[in-house]
Design goal:
single chain, alpha+beta, 3 helices
Length: 75
């Protein structure tokens, strides 16, 4: 978690994999720490059903029924 203000104020991106089952909880945690973060969720990258979803943690914690491999980009 980016709790250290030195890291929070940097212009950087964090990329990580997350399971669809844990995504809502992860978005809740990010919302508590960095509510104005820009997040991109990439689902099934390079596959037939590729999907890109963008929003804030508050918007994205409402996502339901996602399946497949998720890559999260936090900016």
């Amino acid at each position: 978690a980016i709790k250290d203000s030195k890291l929070r104020d940097k212009d950087l991106a964090v990329v990580f994999f997350e399971s669809a089952q844990r995504l809502a909880v992860t978005m809740e945690v990010i919302h508590e720490l960095i509510p104005d973060a820009h997040i991109t969720i990439c689902r099934e990258m390079t596959k037939k059903f590729e999907e890109i979803i963008r929003g804030t943690p508050g918007e994205l914690m409402k996502l339901k029924d996602l399946k497949g491999e998720l890559t999260v980009v936090l900016q």
